[in-house]
Each structure stands twice: as structure tokens, then as C-alpha cells.
Design a protein that fits this description.
Elements lengths: L8 H18 L3 E5 L9 E5 L2 E11 L9 H13 L2 E12 H6 L14 E4 L4 E3 L5 H4 L5
């Protein structure tokens, strides 16, 4: 398999944002905007039950899952949400080459092939918050 058949980093991120977007729609979120670019944050802006929600999405390939790069990224997103009176969520997505997984080829499971099938590891939105915002995230605070 040639490298030009592999998904680019941008395509991997876009795939992850699509997964999260579709799940949020199923869960009743009104999507106000989405942009898969890692240069933009958050990747998804939505509303649910009258609350503005920012969702930061990171996607990676097997054996990894998407993660925030460091504490600065976490605090930047929290401050951005705070300034906009929004809840901040993180969505970690992992994808695995399904054909390689079915063949038992662990090394190839981490090679995202264009036009290939994937297993997706996404276990929902996780609230990003600080201790003083927990009440607000649960609907009990300010």
C-alpha cells in the first residue's frame, strides 16, 4: 500500500469531527457551526437546552486516541468558553483500519487508508471544566 493512499492528518481530523457532529445531532444538539481545522478552536459550536456548547475534537489513529496537546490548550479552551458563557467539551476519537484489524495485522491497524473501512473509538463528550465551574456544567450554578 502506497503512502498516497493514506489519509492525511487533516482528513483524519475531519473524519473525527464528522463522527462527533453526527453523534451530537442524534443527541439533540443544534449545530451552529463546525470546522475540522486544528488551527481553529473549538471545532464544533452547538446549542442544547438553551446552553451554548463548545466542543474541541481531536482524532488519532490506532493505538492512540485524540488528545489535547498540553495544559495551555485546555486552559485556552476553558477561558474561551468562559468568555462566551458556554460549556466546554472535549471529544477524543480514535480510528482503526478495520480490514487490518480483521486480518489480525496490528501494525497496519494504525494505517488509515483512503476509501477504507474504520472502527471508531468514541465514548462521548467529556466536560472540560475547572472545579469552580462544575456546578454550572451540571445546571446548578450561575
Amino acid at each position: 500500500m502506497e503512502r498516497n493512499e493514506w489519509l492525511t492528518r487533516e482528513e483524519i481530523q475531519d473524519f473525527g469531527v464528522q463522527i462527533v457532529y453526527e453523534e451530537m445531532v442524534r443527541d439533540g444538539y443544534e449545530i451552529l457551526g463546525a470546522n475540522p481545522s486544528l488551527a481553529m478552536t473549538p471545532q464544533i459550536v452547538a446549542r442544547k437546552n438553551g446552553r451554548l456548547c463548545f466542543v474541541v475534537v481531536r482524532t488519532d489513529v490506532y493505538p492512540n486516541k485524540g488528545r489535547l496537546s498540553d495544559d495551555r490548550e485546555v486552559f485556552y479552551n476553558l477561558e474561551h468558553a468562559e468568555r462566551n458563557d458556554a460549556l466546554c467539551y472535549f471529544a477524543s476519537v480514535g480510528i482503526c483500519n478495520s480490514a487490518a484489524a480483521e486480518a489480525g495485522d496490528e501494525k497496519a491497524m494504525g494505517i488509515p487508508v483512503r476509501e477504507g473501512g474504520f472502527y471508531v473509538d468514541f465514548d462521548g463528550l467529556k466536560v472540560l471544566t475547572t472545579i469552580d465551574r462544575i456546578g454550572a456544567a451540571n445546571g446548578n450554578g450561575q
